[in-house]
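Worked example (supplementary).
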Amino acid sequence: AQSVSQHNHHVILSEAASLELGCNYSYGGTVNLFWYVQYPGQHLQLLLKYFSGDPLVKGIKGFEAEFIKSKFSFNLRKPSVQWSDTAEYFCAPYQAGTALIFGKGTTLSVSS
Amino acid sequence: NAGVTQTPKFRILKIGQSMTLQCTQDMNHNYMYWYRQDPGMGLKLIYYSVGAGITDKGEVPNGYNVSRSTTEDFPLRLELAAPSQTSVYFCASRPSGGVSYNEQFFGPGTRLTVL
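After joint prediction of all chains, the assembly is encoded as:
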């Protein structure tokens, strides 16, 4: 079964700092990769996704992620975070035939 | 479209009680899913369905049952509630093709407490 590892459990940043959240997955075949975000008290929303093609994908609110096949990684980045980015972030590869497999999540706290 | 809707939003159960968490989607998606979310553990797949009449177990199915009699509805049943089932439950659906293939759309969740 596929597994996913998110390296950072809790990240604390000041506004305008740069962000990078690590994600590694185990599956070596064709992958569909997703980042979801969960703002406090809300349900999960899609941030961005990678299916194929350009390994650098852009999502909503200035987020981007880079798929590096050789490293089995799909790290999330944002050049300058805002207070409103405070949320929990989940990396989720799609396991063929079943469902998205979620990492344990990274809580991002941004201070103004 | 309302998307994926879940009821109730909150529920407190006593140990041994039963209840059904409702999930409905109006996007004509074939695939539907139930996850539970526990603090620091991410989301764990309970059950999923690839279409009406077809269901299958996920990673943590014990203590739960599902049915899928229509494309729209995918209820989750707890027969004998236990404190370990205290969690937030999310229902999701996805299309079987098109540009959003494999993208799962989530409902707002049901927060369940078992005392």
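Two points are worth noting when inspecting this output. Chain A has a mean pLDDT of 91. The two ends of chain A are 41 Å apart (CA to CA).
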